[in-house]
């Protein structure tokens, strides 16, 4: 019986130690990068500004709908002559510099709560 209690104590202690470490580890991950799907970049004002500054007309390109689900890194791999790798690295650095707080919340977090039904339940 005491062994089970000690295991529980150990599990609680490990959880208390791991929680702050997990939070700190998440802070290092950038909100955006050249690996982020282009449509996610275009949906965020700060990331879209980087795209428009570095690649004018990119989000209004006639074929945008065909490549918006891809990342810039994927496009570079498919079309290596379209953009110098150094330019992609510069865009990636600019995207990684955008603070995580600037990342748009998921659509479900911003959706309005459903209004109560005008019909009362019976």
TrEMBL record:
Signal peptide coordinates: 1-18
Region ranges (Disordered): 102-122
Top-level lineage group: Bacteria
Residue ranges, compositional bias (Low complexity): 102-112
Record's protein name: Uncharacterized protein
The UniProt record lists the keyword Signal: yes
Keywords on record: Signal
């Amino acid at each position: 019986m005491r062994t089970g209690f000690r295991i529980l104590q150990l599990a609680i202690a490990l959880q208390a130690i791991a929680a702050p470490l997990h939070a700190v580890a998440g802070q290092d991950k950038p909100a955006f990068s050249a690996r982020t799907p282009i449509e996610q970049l275009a949906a965020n004002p700060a990331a879209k500004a980087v795209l428009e500054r570095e690649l004018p007309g990119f989000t209004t390109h006639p074929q945008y709908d065909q490549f918006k689900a891809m990342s810039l890194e994927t496009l570079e791999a498919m079309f290596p002559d379209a953009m110098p790798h150094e330019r992609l690295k510069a865009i990636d650095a600019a995207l990684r510099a955008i603070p995580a707080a600037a990342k748009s919340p998921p659509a479900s977090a911003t959706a309005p709560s459903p209004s109560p039904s005008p019909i009362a339940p019976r």
